[in-house]
Design brief:
This protein is of the alpha/beta class. Helix content is 34%, strand content 26%.
């Protein structure tokens, strides 16, 4: 097991950081530039910025948000939302992102994953996989797209395996059942994905207390721990999470 990384996530809407529960009930959570600078100072290893309304509003990621945030940090920035072509990826990377995250567009056109990893390198390509429980799927998890609004009748774990074969570099699974609840990551879903692929897996959705971060690594097999609500509302500090993980015997960058 390598060094565990902490990744705060800025969910963006109308130029502000927002946070919801189960992908709805959205509330304001501050200014993206101020948050980004604060999290880097706090010891974040990476930062995610997801334009949560881009796909639903049928538009591209707002590049000015990417430029403004990337200008104040040196840590790697992953940007997602509304990225659906090779040109989109190029523009987002040029605006200052280090990696892009794709979800709906990759499901719609799996060949895009292959082309993107070939053109930009697989270390630049993260595939976000949103899922919800569905007993009719062989893994028990069904893939959903369009900001969690459309189930696609596809097994989420099988899709993760396919993404690895297509050349993705990172898998970012989020369980809709856990998102924003602060009741803990969906360990069953995270573990199903980490068992199925040989790529770094980002645990996402539901972190609420220190134990949840540790469980995501030990029980979920995650290498990167993404959280939003607990950091935005200052329930926990990044330094606190890292110190806790270190005391538990995990390797972190302090």
């Amino acid at each position: 097991m390598g060094t565990i990384k902490i990744m705060p996530c800025l969910d963006m809407k109308e130029g502000r950081v927002v946070k919801g529960i189960h992908f709805v009930n959205i509330k304001d959570a501050g200014d993206p530039v101020q948050n980004a600078a604060f999290y880097e100072k706090e010891g974040a290893d990476e930062l995610a910025m997801l334009d949560i309304a881009a796909t639903l509003e049928n538009r591209k990621t707002r590049l000015e948000w990417v430029k403004n945030v990337s200008a104040v940090i040196k840590i790697p920035l992953t940007v997602g939302g509304g990225i659906s072509t090779l040109e989109d990826i190029e523009l987002v990377l040029k605006a200052g992102a280090d990696k892009v995250s794709m979800n709906s567009a990759a499901v719609k056109n799996p060949d895009l994953v292959k082309q993107a990893s070939k053109q930009f390198g697989n270390d630049k390509i993260t595939i976000a996989i949103d899922a919800r429980r569905n007993k009719t799927m062989s893994s028990g998890f069904e893939l959903v797209v369009s900001g969690g609004t459309k189930p696609v009748g596809k097994d989420a774990v099988a899709w993760a395996t396919q993404c690895q074969e297509l050349g993705a570099g990172v898998i970012l699974p989020t369980s809709m059942d856990g998102d924003g609840t602060q009741t803990g990551y969906d360990l069953e879903f995270t573990k199903a994905i980490s068992d199925a692929v040989n790529l770094p897996v980002v645990a996402s959705g539901g972190a609420g207390k220190l134990e949840h971060f540790y469980e995501a690594v030990i029980k979920g097999g995650a290498q990167v721990l993404l959280a939003a609500s607990v950091f935005h509302y200052r329930t926990l500090r990044i330094t606190e999470v890292k110190e806790y993980l270190r005391k538990k015997g995990l390797k972190v960058n302090l």
